[in-house]
Amino acid sequence: MSQTQLVRYRHGKNTFEVMTNVGSVQKYRDQKLGLDNVLQADVVWTNQSKGERAKGAELKETFNTEDIMECIRVILAKGEIQLTAAERREQTDQKRREIVYYVHKYYTDPRAKTPHPIARIDAALTEIKFRVDPDIPAERQAQDALKKLVEVIPLKRSEIVGTLSVPIKALGAVQGILSKGVEVSGETYTGDSCEMTISVV
Questions:
Q1: What are the pLDDT digits (tens) for 127-154?
Q2: I want to staple 110 with a disulfide (CB 3.0 to 4.6 A). Which of 17, 53, 156, 183 is the partner?
């Protein structure tokens, strides 16, 4: 496995790259590592894989200087770290765990009225051949996965049931708020207040 990690910086039509040691850039940004321990070469590339070095005019246009080290500092500070295959895989695995936990936390087996075990949800994701994208929020992907998960395991959105006491004078305002995410299944009026039986999905 390569021990090189590219940092890519785009500015307008120009793209610049520097070669760094794997895992060193974030430590440099956190001021835990010096520049000498980050760089594999004091070179700025426009396309490292093709061996194309940045020209002085290109550096001047973007960084207002042709000083290589000054340009490199900007690239390291603002550039995008290109993940290694192992780092990308770890991010994907982490996102998958987040998706599984989301389903486990917010959905239940309607037959048992308890959450499905983590392992069962994970196996179901595999069964539906769900492809995890490490760059998309877990909640959004979970919602997409649920459309197919319900075909292999029974799922129902969890509900929280309770009682809410509201002063009569505030009833109008509160009902407007509750209508956005709470189901009211019963109301009992007692003196100057209203007792509501509610369920939150």
A1: 999 999 988 999 999 999 999 999 999 9
A2: 156
Other CB atoms closer than 10 Å to residue 44's CB: what's the count?
Answer: 24
Q: What is the 3-state secondary structure (H, E, C) of the chain?
A: CCCEEEEEEEECCEEEEEEEECCHHHHHHCCCCCHHHCECCCCCEEEHHHCEECCHHHHHHHHCCCCHHHHHHHHHHHCEECCCHHHHHHHHHHHHHHHHHHHHHHEEECCCCECCCHHHHHHHHHHCCCCCCCCCCHHHHHHHHHHHHCCCCCCEECCEEEEEEEEHHHHHHHHHHHCCCEEEEEEEEECCEEEEEEEEC
Average pLDDT over residues 51-67: 95
Torsions phi, psi for 45 (to 5 deg): -110, 155
174-193: pLDDT as tens digits: 777 776 667 777 788 887 88
Among 66, 63, 64, residue whose Cα is nearest residue 55: 66
